Amino acid sequence: MMDWTDRHCRFFHRLLAPRALLFSEMVTTGAIRHGPTDRLLAFDAREQPVILQLGGSEPDELAAAIRTAEAFGYAGYDLNCGCPSDRVQKGRFGACLMAEPERVRDCLSAMREATAKPLSVKSRIGIDDVDEAPFLERFVTTVAEAGIDTFVIHARKAWLQGLSPKQNREVPPLRYALVEALQRHHPELRIVLNGGLRTPGDVARAMRWAKGVMIGREAYQNPASLPALEAAAWNRPPPVTDFTAVVAALADYVDQSRGQGVPAAAILRHTLGLFNGRPGARLWRRTLSDEMRSPLAAGDLVRRAAAPVLERQAA
Ligand SMILES: Cc1cc2nc3c(=O)[nH]c(=O)nc-3n(C[C@H](O)[C@H](O)[C@H](O)COP(=O)(O)O)c2cc1C
To answer: Which residue puts its alpha carbon closest to atom 13 of ligand 1?
Structure first.
């Protein structure tokens, strides 16, 4: 999620969701072309499997971006056809690409030439005033001609004019039934449901018919929910999270990253919700918020902030 997630967030989420497939925020082909690629694309192998989400609409540029990214070891690539922001529309990619399924198919064909890794497309169910069901059917079947079978679908349409990106994630109604019908008509496709999934119950209900779920805002705003959400996706009982191990790994990562010039706050800003819903959640949040911007902040801050919280949980 642009402006929210980054490699440090992924490292943290991986500690809480060991089996999930993690997606990068959208990285545009232009950004990759102009670099610096290390800052944009490098990540820690412990985050794997990680999918790089690309923003672009030119087959050649997407293929070139993948050839550059291949050196970084991504597990696969996704093409963004769901972002409605003005900036993205000016570049003629994101959600407005849904109006050009043949172009998307050609983009995916070019991406396929550049890599043997798994490819997917993330889209909405439609744009503007289209009749969603036939529009989505045509979009998906056309793109699938490129040999793509995985579609991550945010189950609401995007309005390209008049709504902000934030409103476009809240105002158009969620229509899971339409995505479910698509999956039922196309058992050969892997439809991954996205949009508004917040509880293990939501995930379990979706997994009755979907081949996967993608979770955005809830994962970021309430990372403590990740273990139970992941367990629901795999139809397992909720796990007992080993917070002592999570804290130890996080503290070590802060120290290691500091050695590479990454300030502690760049990592810890993602972790304020680690203990949400548990005793000591506020103390953790407050200690980190107060101290993480200090130039001296390091792994020790994580251990110190967590100690009273872990003690309370053990009691
Ligand atoms: C701040 C923010 C940035 C986002 N950036 C991206 C992005 O880069 N690529 C993308 O496919 N979706 C992006 N999204 C959309 C989410 O991936 C997701 O489709 C949407 O929030 C609905 O799912 P949710 O209800 O689980 O959050 C973003 C969402 C937010 C809140």
So the answer is: 1
